[in-house]
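Incident log, structure service

09:12 report received: a user says their structure output differs between two submissions of the same chain.
09:20 pulled the input from the user's history:
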Amino acid sequence: MSSSGDFGNPLRKFKLVFLGEQSVGKTSLITRFMYDTFDNTYQATIGIDFLSKTMYLEDRTVESIL
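09:34 re-ran on a clean worker, output below:
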């Protein structure tokens, strides 16, 4: 099995960094993208969070690292 991803297509990796002032919605935006949910309560992110999501778009495998 090759390390290029599923279906014989190359795995594309994108690393995204979200920077900004506090309480502007960075975590809410990421949570919406990752889990398709929204939480109205505010809980500050302490430190750094890393998440990744693999998606299959048309004929490509894409991994987003947030």
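09:41 both user submissions now match this output. Likely a transient worker issue. Closing.
09:42 reviewer note: The two ends are 27 Å apart (CA to CA). Residues 6-65 form one domain.
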